[in-house]
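STRUCTURE:
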């Protein structure tokens, strides 16, 4: 098999094309279309079924996701899943800490009458919630590895002051 969709260099972002003087000779309309997100950036409505802790997490992350352009109204379910998983994880971690502070310390490891030991149900639930939060959070770039694949819509200021830009526009048009 000669090649696949991963063969060759990956395409340069439209901003790099514009900064380098557009060596690929793409039209300005094509470059501008690449800069626009496929789905408009907007905060989805917060579901009314979220727990109080999940609502706090929702409010904490939505503003930053909007600034980065990584959220739309279509993302309600994925974001709600992430927020509930984080809320569950916090609740289970508090319960584990509470149980560990007790005399028998059965928060992380449960000891049976036979002497056998096993991860407590609270630890298992916390691990599951952490896994769900990491999986859903990766969709929004909530880890360094996930952010590497995301493309932020970084706001870019004017490259030239207005006088120079206008002069360059007259020269090249």
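SEQUENCE:
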């Amino acid at each position: 098999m000669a090649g696949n969709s991963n063969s060759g260099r990956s395409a340069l972002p439209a901003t790099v094309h514009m900064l380098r003087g557009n060596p690929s000779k793409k039209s300005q309309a094509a470059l501008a279309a690449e800069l626009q997100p496929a789905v408009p950036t907007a905060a989805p409505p917060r579901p009314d079924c979220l727990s109080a802790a999940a609502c706090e997490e929702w409010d904490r992350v939505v503003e930053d996701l909007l600034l980065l352009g990584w959220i739309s109204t279509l993302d309600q379910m994925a974001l709600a899943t992430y927020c509930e998983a984080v809320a569950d994880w916090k609740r289970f971690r508090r319960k584990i800490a509470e149980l560990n502070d007790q005399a028998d310390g059965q928060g992380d490891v449960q000891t049976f009458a036979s002497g056998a030991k096993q991860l407590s149900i609270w630890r298992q639930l916390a691990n599951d919630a952490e896994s769900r939060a990491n999986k859903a959070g990766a969709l929004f770039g909530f880890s360094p590895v996930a952010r590497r694949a995301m493309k932020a819509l970084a706001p870019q200021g004017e490259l030239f002051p207005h006088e120079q830009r206008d002069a360059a526009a007259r020269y090249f048009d």
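REMARK: Strands lie at 109-111, 117-119.
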